[in-house]
């Protein structure tokens, strides 16, 4: 595989899955990397072979893009550079995303925003743990509060029964 084939394959794998700027940044990086390694005397095919295939690298780039705050939060794909520029200019039309041609007539404001919790981040896990802790604490407080109140009332019932029995004994039977 040549450098151009590798870069075209990487571009094709990333198109519609990450922003256009991320694609250009990675294409530029791998172009420079391959050029530097071949300048050191390595064969172009050997350098590309050590990198792995464009699909593997694209998967890594997409995963890294989804771990940042630049992710689309619920959208299937970003679309191409042409689609992004059309949206910026206010025009709509057909766009090629995710391997199928779809009609896009909605605007960015019309889309619903779906936010997901990323449990890979430590502070999200800490927050979720605290919420679970406080819910369990609240439920246990309510339960043991009721049980504790019932125990208190139950102990008073014995006291009241003992007092009534003493009164009955001193008062004697009714005539």
Description:
This protein is mostly helical. It contains 6 helices and 2 strands; from the N terminus they run αααααββα. The protein has helices spanning 3-14, 20-39, 44-51, 54-66, 81-89, 122-171, and strands spanning 93-97, 100-104. It has a two-stranded antiparallel sheet with strand order 1-2. The chain is rod-shaped.
The end-to-end span amounts to: 114 Å
What is the share of helical residues? 55-70%
Shape: rod-shaped
- Largest sheet features: 2 strands, antiparallel
List keywords for this structure.
two-stranded antiparallel sheet; 2 strands; 175 residues; mainly alpha
Strand-helix topology:
Elements: H1 3-14, H2 20-39, H3 44-51, H4 54-66, H5 81-89, E1 93-97, E2 100-104, H6 122-171
Antiparallel strand pairs: 1-2
Helix pairs in contact: 1-2, 1-4
């Amino acid at each position: 595989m040549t450098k151009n084939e590798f870069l075209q394959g990487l571009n094709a794998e990333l198109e519609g899955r990450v922003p256009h700027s991320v694609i250009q940044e990675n294409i530029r990086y791998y172009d420079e990397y391959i050029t530097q390694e071949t300048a050191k005397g390595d064969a172009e095919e050997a350098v590309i072979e050590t990198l792995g295939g464009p699909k593997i690298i694209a998967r890594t780039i997409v995963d890294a893009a989804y771990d940042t705050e630049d992710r689309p939060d619920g959208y299937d794909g970003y679309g191409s550079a042409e689609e992004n520029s059309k949206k910026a200019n206010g025009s709509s039309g057909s766009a090629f995303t995710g391997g199928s041609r779809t009609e896009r007539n909605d605007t960015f404001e019309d889309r619903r925003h779906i936010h997901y919790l990323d449990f890979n981040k430590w502070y999200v896990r800490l927050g979720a743990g605290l919420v679970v802790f406080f819910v369990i604490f609240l439920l246990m407080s309510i339960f043991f509060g009721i049980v504790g109140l019932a125990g208190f009332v139950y102990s008073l019932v014995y006291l009241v029964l003992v007092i009534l029995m003493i009164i009955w004994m001193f008062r004697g039977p009714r005539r």
